[in-house]
Design a protein that fits this description.
heterodimer; A: alpha/beta; Rossmann fold; six-stranded mixed beta sheet; four-stranded antiparallel beta sheet; 11 helices; globular; B: mainly alpha; binds adenosine-5'-triphosphate; binds magnesium ion
């Protein structure tokens, strides 16, 4: 990713976000700006608050303090449904698939907000219903083709391998036509080959104009794909910057790569 | 196993038409009036169980109060037909709408509740409906109930004979299946199922879960009301005790045994429970012990029911292995 510091349009902004669970400061005064066209990496040790931060961005949690802005609009208090309507899509760390629905049906749910046929349309098979179904099916199949799950469209999602289930989640999120895609550890549970393919897929999506924020533990993935990185530790932001800045920052090294490991080793 | 499935999918229309034709001639082949009455009961309860399954099996809300919606339908029919002489066929949708409204009243305050809490509220609502029916004498006839509910018109046939009333139940059952099948295979049905599967994920994809849960509740209540409306003239006399929680649990037992989340499950469940009820009559109340044993066995051997959605061949497959839930992440580095 070439550095594009020319015209950076902020898309998703967090200002002073805090989330406390009782005495536990899961996220503590975190600021962040994701701009249009970014592949934005969020890294940090286990329990650093990354997932909690995503949950705040997508309306699943309301922050104890702070605001979230999307395209300049305050979305802090919005419900997850309303956030999805704004075209913010996400995947989950602990796979939250519709297991007893087929892969195709999973993706079709992603088209929900873009269609509007109601129960009566369904019962009477009105033109609205037919148009919606045709659109949904076509769009879903197109996404499945692109992500390489077309052959598995009629398989129950729960029957797929771990790596493929992660892909179904991404496919489902893509069906929203997201302005930003939040991926929570998309490569977890994938083998190195799958990880590599996923990395290329994410880069291809980005090239198509998708803005992506990704939580990932795979350093190679993060350092090579992301143009900006946010480092969290114990809920606090250590740094937000380019991969080069992250590599050389001594605080990041001691916090994240601690235990005597040199950043370069992990990164290379 | 999958051969059966493949065969079914290939000849679906013909098979279903054959079953329908067989059901149409049934009351003329089975001449014993008692058996025809059983057939009526099976159809009636199959649709009632289906309406409960539309809620519990598809949106995953645990409703225990189906007897209440059933009662609403039956009373609306009884009251309007005996007092104002409203036509039965008009009353069918009206009863459904009444029940759906009550369903909405129950659904709205319980939207935030889940699992056992929702169950308890629905159970309570069902009891409240029964108690109102028992005490509101001027309207519901109180403990005396409502007598002489007029038999519906059906092309001039003597509908007081089960042989002909059977066709009313068959019609409602078929209509329920056709309509529900269409709803399930639409945006609305998918939204319901997504809520059953994972509510958070559904929300994060923009499914307004509160709206769809209420709609689902109203849909189930609507059909319970319609069935209630068809039930009242059939028995000709209704009173509150017919709509006790026993009835509710009976219907629940049907979908537990038959399987939730498929259209076939409640039908099987209704057949099994009705046949057992009739054939075990000589055991008197001991037959409830047998039910209990069957339900416990089902929970143990086949928790999803005979045709349950989860692991059933009839439902279109099963999930072989359960992916391990990985809470933490890999260690870094
Ligand atoms: N709902 C909750 N209630 C209480 N504590 C929570 C809750 N969710 C998260 N936490 C706590 O907040 C902290 C941050 O958790 P979080 O899941 O955000 O970390 P993470 O950075 O995503 O870690 P990982 O890399 O393991 O996914 C942890 O200590 C966790 O136990
Ligand atoms: Mg996490």
């Amino acid at each position: 990713m070439a550095e594009q510091t020319l015209t950076r349009v902020p898309l998703l902004e967090a200002q002073g976000i805090c989330k406390y669970f009782g005495g536990l400061k899961a996220v503590d005064h975190v600021d962040m700006t994701i701009c249009q066209g970014d592949i934005f990496g969020i890294i940090g040790p286990n329990g650093a608050g990354k997932t909690t931060f995503f949950n705040i961005c997508t309306g699943i949690f309301t922050p104890t303090q702070g605001r979230i802005f999307f395209c300049g609009e305050d979305i802090t208090a919005m419900s997850p449904e309303a956030v999805a309507q704004k075209r913010i899509a996400r995947t989950f760390q602990n796979l939250q698939l519709f297991k007893f629905m087929t892969v195709l049906e999973n993706v079709k749910i992603g088209c929900h907000i873009k269609t509007k046929s109601n129960m009566f349309d369904a019962i009477l098979h009105t033109p609205t219903f037919k148009r919606d179904e045709a659109f949904t099916t076509e769009k879903s199949l197109e996404i499945l083709k692109r992500i390489g799950l077309f052959d598995f469209r009629d398989t129950l999602a729960g029957n797929l391998s771990y790596g493929m289930q992660r892909k179904v989640e991404i496919a489902r999120a893509l069906a929203l036509d997201p302005k930003i895609l939040l991926l929570d550890e998309p490569a977890a549970g994938m083998n190195p080959l799958e990880t590599k393919a996923l990395m290329e897929f994410i880069q291809a999506l980005n090239a198509d104009g998708y803005t992506i924020a990704v939580i990932e533990h795979d350093m190679k993935f993060v350092m090579n794909s992301c143009n900006r990185i946010l480092v969290l530790n114990f809920g606090q932001k250590i740094l937000e910057g380019t991969p080069a800045e992250v590599k050389t920052n001594p605080e990041v090294q001691s916090a994240y790569f601690g235990k005597g490991m040199v950043a370069g080793e992990a990164i290379r | 196993m999958s051969k059966v499935q493949a065969f079914y999918h290939k000849h679906r229309t013909i098979l279903l038409l054959a079953v329908f034709a067989a059901l149409c001639v049934l009351p003329f082949v089975v001449t014993k009036a008692l058996f025809v009455r059983y057939a009526c009961n099976i159809l009636l309860f199959a649709t009632l169980a289906g309406s409960l399954n539309a809620i519990n099996g598809y949106s995953g809300q645990m409703c225990l109060g189906q007897a209440g919606f059933f009662a609403i339908g039956a009373y609306v029919c009884a009251i309007f037909s005996t007092r104002f002489g409203v036509n039965f066929w008009l009353l069918l949708p009206i009863s459904g709408v009444f029940a759906a409204m009550v369903g909405l009243l129950v659904a709205l305050p319980t939207l935030k509740l889940q699992g056992i809490y929702l169950s308890i509220v629905t159970l309570g609502a069902s009891e409240i409906i029964r108690i109102i029916a028992q005490t509101w004498e001027p309207v519901t006839g109180g403990a005396l109930g409502i007598k002489n509910i007029p038999y519906p018109w059906l092309f001039g046939l003597d509908t007081f004979r089960p042989k002909y009333y059977y066709f009313i139940f068959l019609l409602i059952g078929v209509l329920f299946l056709l309509v529900t099948n269409r709803v399930l295979k639409s945006r609305v049905g998918r939204a319901w199922i997504s809520i059953r599967e994972d509510q958070i994920a559904a929300k994060s994809l923009g499914v307004q879960t509160s709206f769809y849960k209420s709609l689902n509740f109203m849909y189930g209540a609507f059909w319970a009301g319609v069935v209630g409306c068809a039930y009242a003239p059939f028995v000709n006399y209704i009173e509150a005790s017919q709509f006790s929680t026993d009835t509710g649990f009976n219907v629940l037992a049907m979908i537990v045994i038959g399987g939730q989340g498929t259209l076939l499950g409640p039908i099987l469940g209704s057949m099994i429970v009705t046949v057992l009820t009739e054939s075990l009559r000589f055991l008197d109340n001991w037959r409830y012990v047998i039910y209990a044993v069957i339900i416990i066995m089902m929970m143990w051997l086949r928790p999803q029911g005979i045709a349950g959605a989860s692991h059933s061949v009839l439902a279109g497959g099963k999930i072989k292995r359960k992916p391990v839930r990985r809470e933490g992440a890999r260690s870094h580095g």
